[in-house]
Amino acid sequence: xxxxxxxxxxxxxxxxxxxxxxxxxxxxxxxxxxxxxxxxxxxxxxxxxxxxxxxxxxxxxxxxxxxxxxxxxxxxxxxxxxxxxxxxxxxxxxxxxxxxxxxxxxxxxxxxxxxxxxxxxxxxxxxxxxxxxxxxxxxxxxxxxxxxxxxxxxxxxxxxxxxxxxxxxxxxxxxxxxxxxxxxxxxxxxxxxxxxxxxxxxxxxxxxxxxxxxxxxxxxxxxxxxxxxxxxxxxxxxxxxxxxxxxxxxxxxxxxxxxxxxxxxxxxxxxxxxx
Length: 275
Hints:
The chain is of the alpha/beta class. The chain is 47% helix and 15% strand. It has 11 helices and 10 strands. The strands form 3 sheets. A 6-stranded mixed beta sheet has the order 3-2-1-4-6-5, sandwiched between helices. The protein has a two-stranded antiparallel ribbon with strand order 7-8.
């Protein structure tokens, strides 16, 4: 049995409950993939997006919904070593990638402060345009359950708003394009377990600007890592804390919300209070 076949088997067998079922649940509940879609599956070189690519490959084999997929790797300026790791992993896992080059790292290198926000926006823009040129109507990103709840906490603590990471979004700048996140319900710990079980190594961070290019499970001292640590601490008292945060974004009680924004317009509970 080839390595990629072993990996595929692990997804559908050993990790059926923790990964495959969560992937299928998200695809169905949020209606992420529909008949006739052509999806650009965006692979960054990390464990999350690579596993997402394998899950989408599996879905193509067995789903009654007919859709196409293009597996894209955008190189923002990786080192030769990191680029080769991505190429080797995709070859090992039988993922037929298309690589295209950009100069994002060079462009944002002179940005004062942290260039992360600009880098992320530029990455998204390049992916949309390249995917659209291939005839795709969707791009698929590998964000998972932990990314979702960490985003909720970061928005609350540091941006002063209750904001979530959506399972799908229509692009406002690229007509007819949509972003989907089929790993939305998969937990990072389970993704790490899948990686280790199969003896795989992925790029953790390939940012040339911060000189933090590592592989494995090491974490950096970011705000997101701060949220990971907080959730881990809270789970010692309440093991369901992460599930409750996730459930809360599906169960917002607007009768108890002071103010909210809809379609760019602010609303206040007093607007309807006297009616």
